[in-house]
Structures are given as structure tokens and as C-alpha cells.
Amino acid sequence: ATANDEKRIAYIDRALREVLACLGEGADVRSYMYWSLLDNFEWALGYAPTFGLVAVDRQTFARHPRPSSSWLGAVARARVLPIYGEVARSAGGAGADPAQPVQSV
Q: CA 34 → CA 3, 60, 71, distances in Å?
């Protein structure tokens, strides 16, 4: 959990690259699911951890998509990962353009 969305994007990027490595070794991987869509309540830590792709304002319950949600959506639509090292760089901080593939997903 982190408030720094660039770290969240880098984490997801690393996880997806590991999935690709497993596929390359012949593992039968059928899907990848990121936990969690929303910031939520953790029994041991309350609302402190913020690991959702969508932030939740605890006063108004308004939802605010983080740049990582756009980044992951773009990767999923393009079915490619950005060039390694370009993950957290862009004008909006939302990650690299997934149209620059290294490997297909």
C-alpha cells in the first residue's frame, strides 16, 4: 500500500512481467487480478493503507480514479507492456504509453 501512485504502477508492471516470465516457462496462467479496485478497510490497519486503483474519500465516499487505473486499463486494452524503465514516466505521471511494447500479454 502506498500513496505514491508511481510506485503502484511500478509494482503492477513488475507483477505483470513476472506473469509473462511464468508464461514463458510454460505455466498455465489464465488471468491476473489486481487487489484492490477501491481503497478499503483492512481489519488490522483500518483505512490507512491505500492500495486501490480508485481512491475513496472517507468523508464524502466520492471515488477518484488514480493514474494507475488508467495505466492498467491502457495495458489491458493494448495487451502489451511499456518499454522497461518507461513505466512511471509521462507528462501526467500515469506511466508510459503502452503502445510501445516489449512483450505481448
A: 16, 25, 13
Low-confidence ranges of the chain (pLDDT < 70): 84-105
Q: What pLDDT score was predicted for residue 86?
A: 55
Question: CB of 77 within 8 A of CB of 16?
Answer: no
Q: What is the pLDDT of residue 63?
A: 96
Q: Grid coordinates representing 98?
A: 503502452
Contacts of 83 by beta carbon, 8 Å cutoff, 6+ apart = 96, 100, 101, 102
Do the Cβ atoms of 88 and 6 come closer than 8 Å? yes
E-strand ranges in 1-105 read 54-56, 63-65
Instruction: Supply 93's cell numbers.
Output: 505521471
Segments making up each domain of the chain, as ranges: 5-78
C-alpha cell at 33: 487480478
Q: How many CB atoms lie within 10 A of CB 74?
A: 17
Q: What are phi and psi of 56, to 5 degrees?
A: -120, 120
